[in-house]
Amino acid sequence: MSRPRPVHLVSICLLVLAALSPSLAEEGFTPAKRLGAHERPAYPSGAYLLSLEGRVTLRVSIDASGHVTQVSIKECPGPAKEWEPLRKTVSAWEFAPARQDGEAVASELDLDYEFELDWSPSLARMYARPNKEVFQTLANLFDEWKLKPQHVDDDNQLLLITNRRLRQQSFPGLEELRLPSGLPDRMTLHCFVSPAVEPARVYCNASLHQGGQKGLTGGRLERWVLDRLDERLGTPGHTIPRGYERRAALARKLAATFTDADVLPEFSTAAITKTQPKTFPELHAKTRVKPRYPARKALAGKQGRLMYETLVQEDGALVVGRMLSREPAQGFDESSRMAFLFWRYQPARLKDGPIPYLSTATISFSLR
Fold first, then answer.
1. How many CA atoms lie within 13 A of 217 on its CB side?
2. pLDDT of 26 strictly over 60
3. What is the rounded distance in angstroms from the CA atom of residue 322 to the CA atom of residue 312?
4. Residue 157 Ramachandran class (φ > 0 left, ψ -120 to 50 alpha, else beta)
5. Which backbone phi and psi does 309 adopt, to 5 degrees?
6. pLDDT tens-place string over residues 128-162
């Protein structure tokens, strides 16, 4: 004899509802619908400049005539005040009102929008050209754009511009780099062509400023510069992969006659002189490029402090080795190593000249 099946409470409720009222499909409810074009709202400039990204949900109240009576921010990344322009935009929209059995009724509607920065973790390219040729081409472009760097190092192949005022008539890319709230008025742009390896590798670190605010532009400015370099060289740059073996393979593919010496150093104190130097390495202030703050770490309120084993070479360039300590979380290593590429030192010296010097370097990420 089979056991009777239990009757679930949900089933009983559905039976009662079916008996007492028409089904939902027969009730004739039609939600409100926006009239006119369906373009998405613009990225609010405050959120953009602060590198806020993610889903924003707006709760919209609509009366029986289709007018918006209230808009509230139900969900958003970061401070709600930075998304306030969305409320003003949606408040001006017109809707076909919701209908219940053919009659217009007041209703509420949730609108979801995803806002995402055009973010790239690696703003660098490798070219099948000698590094000196690429550096000179990049320097020529800076001249054409009337962007005179505040610091130029021909030996280390650095071009550094920090907080430079822009003028539309002199910089051709300004209109293309328009921010949601208008044209940027200041620029920070750091470019480095590695002199130690072939083929050429170009690294860029940049930001745009507007009205006293500084924004990480999701790599738009860096990519604009690298795209112009591609055009001038007539050679497309290749994204530099992670890992020495993969980088070496790409280098061999691009230029078989070049040799790739980019090996992550494992320092041995035996290779460094034990003699106390007469003067110790000193960092050139203009080359202390700040690291790019990872957008998702900033959004989550994460801070970090990392220490690396380093070698200050005779020419003042910094070679970064293994990480010695990390506080407290992961996710800052790539940005740190990118910033170190631009750092240059007055090297340690003995009486007869400069010497390599084994040391440490610390880099911090702070939201204060």
1. 29
2. no
3. 14
4. left
5. -80, 130
6. 888 899 999 999 999 988 888 988 888 888 899 88
Quick: pLDDT tens for 87-99: 988 998 999 999 9
Residue-number span of the structural domain to which 81 is assigned: 23-115
Single residue among 234, 263, 292 that ends a domain in this structure? 263
What CATH number has the domain bearing residue 307? 3.30.2420.10
Q: Write down the mean pLDDT value for the chain.
A: 77
Distance, in Å, from the CA atom of 304 to the CA atom of 292, rounded to the nearest integer, reads: 12
- State the burial class of residue 318 (Cβ atoms within 10 Å of its Cβ: 0-12, 13-18, 19+): buried
Query: In sequence order, which residues have a C-beta less than 8 Å from that of residue 144 and are 6 or more positions away?
Result: none
- Other C-beta atoms within 10 Å of 12: how many? 10
Which CATH number do you get for residue 252?
A: 3.30.530.50
- Decide which of 115, 150, 167 is a domain's last residue: 115
Whether residue 101 is contained in a domain is answered as yes
